[in-house]
Amino acid sequence: MKIIKKSAPLFLAISILLVSACAQLPVNNNTYPSYAYSDTSKSSLGKKSSAWLKKSADKSAMFLLNEGTEAFFARLLLLAEAEKSIDVQYYIWRADLTGKLLYGEMIKAADRGVRVRVLMDDINVTSEIEAMLYAMDKHKNIEVRLYNPFASRGFRLADYLTDTFRINRRMHNKSFTVDGQYTVVGGRNIGNEYFSADKESNFKDLDVISVGQIVNDVGKQFDTYWNSKVVYSVKLFVHNKSTQADLEKLKIELSEFWKKQKGSKYDLDIQDSELYRYFENKSQNKNYKKLFSKLFSGDVLVLYDDPEKSLGKSDKEIVFLKSLLKPHLDKVKNRFEMISPYFVPGSRGTEYLTSLVKRGIKVRVVTNSLSSTDGIMAQSGYARQRLNLLKGGIELYELKAEEKTRASRSLRRGGKAKSGLHAKTYIFDRKEIFIGSFNFDPRSANINAEVGILYQIPEMAQLIGSAVFDNDLKEFTYRLELVTVDAIDEADIEYKQEKIYWIETIDGKEIRYDTDPKTSAWRRFNEGLYSILPIESQL
Q1: According to the 3-state scheme, what is the secondary structure of 352-381?
Q2: Candidate list 84, 138, 204, 422, residue with the active-site label
Q3: Which of 74, 102, 125, 199 sits in a 20 to 30 Å window from 267, CA-based?
Q4: Active-site residue (options: 84, 100, 138, 174)
C-alpha cells in the first residue's frame, strides 16, 4: 500500500501525459475563408447609418454607451434589424440572462436568412456554452469558430500542463458588427455583470457604437482573426456530436427563456434607460438633448494586434497594438490620462510614466481599488509599483466599490450590487482618445491579442476627460497621497517613513485611511502574498 501511495503522483503524471498525447488539434485546419459583406448600403441599417452620417460619408460617427442597460439594448436593436450579417468576437460570452437573450436573437436572425459568424476565445467556453455553440453551428446560416482552442476538450488541465506557452495566449478582443453598417467596440464582454444585470457585482464600462468607415476597418480586423491559422471551426472537433435536433431543442429553450423575461426586473430596467425611451417615443425626440451629447463624428483609427501574436511571434516580426499606440503617447505635451481596471505598469512602465512627468506632463490614472477589483493578482502587480508611481509624480485614483453611475443607482436587479472598473480608456492631451480591450499591463502588451479604436476627435476626448477627471473623481474614487511620517525602529531609532494614504471625500469632508479602504485583513494578505511572487509578466 505504501508503494502505491508513493507512486500515485507518478501515475497521475503518466496519465496526464497519455491523455494529452491522445488529444491534438485538428491536423487539417483548412476551413474555407469568408469575409465581411460590403454591399449592404440598401439594408435597413444601411439607410439609417447613411442618415446618421449625413454629409460626412468619408468620416465615422459614434455614440457612447456608458450605461450597461443601454449597451445591452443597443445590441438587441441591432440584432432585431439585422438583414445581411452578424459578426461577433468575444473573450467571454456567458450562458446567463444577457448571454442567452443575445444568443436567442442571433438564432432568430439566422432563421431570417442572416449570416452569423461567432468567434470566441476558448479559455472561457464552459461545457454548457460549448454545447450551445455546437448546436448553433448546426444552423445553415451560423458558423462558430474558436480562437486558440484547447486540444483536450474534456480534460483541459492536460493542455495547461503540456502546452502552457500556447494556451497562455488568448484573444481579448470584443467587437459586435451587424450588416457591415453598425459596430460596437469597447471594454464589455457578454455577461450580466457587463450590462448592469448582476445582483452582486457590476462593472463600470464603456462601449462605442459606430457607423461609417470605422465599420469597414473593424470588419477587416474581424476577417483577419476569423481566417487566421490560430482559429478553428467547431466542425473540426471529433467529439462534436451535435445534431439538428440539438439546435431545435436550443431554439425552444431560448424562446421559452425569452418569454419568461418579459416584465422581469431587468426588462423594466431596460425600459427605464434613456436609449429605450428615445426609440419608444420618437415623437418626443426633442426632449433628449442629453442623449445627443454623446454623439460624435470624425476620423478614427482601428488598432489591433496581429493574431499570430498567439504563436509567440515578437513585435519585431508582426504588428503589436502597443507599438501602434506608442507614437500617440510619445507626442503628448500636456497631459496623459488613463482609465485601466488592471493597471500593472511594472518597473519599465513606471519609469516611462514618471519620465513623462519629468517632461512637465501631467499623468493621472484611475484604476480599481482592492475593494472593487475582481482580479487580486493584477491588483498586487499595481500595488507593487504604487509607491514608486506616487514618488514619480503620478496622480493615482482608485474606484470605490459602492459607487455607481447615476442611472445604475435606480436599477431593480443590480442597484445594490458593488461596482468594479472595467473600461479601458486612454486620453492624449484631450485631443485623441483610445477605447478598447487593451489594459495597461504586461498581458495586454505582450501576450494577449487586443483591439481598440483611437478617436481623433477632441470634443469626444474632452467630454470623457472632463466627466471623469474634472467632475467625478472626488465622488467615485479614493485619491492616493504620499506623505512622510516619523517612525521608530526596533532599536528606538527615529527615521522618516514614506506612507500612502487613501483619501475619501464625503459632503466636502476628507476621510483618510492608512490601509486599503473597505477591505478585510484576509484580502490584504492575499494581495501582499501575490505581490512577492514572480508573476508580474503574466498579469
Answers
A1: HHHHHHHCCCEEEEEEECCCCCCCHHHHHH
A2: 422
A3: 125
A4: 174
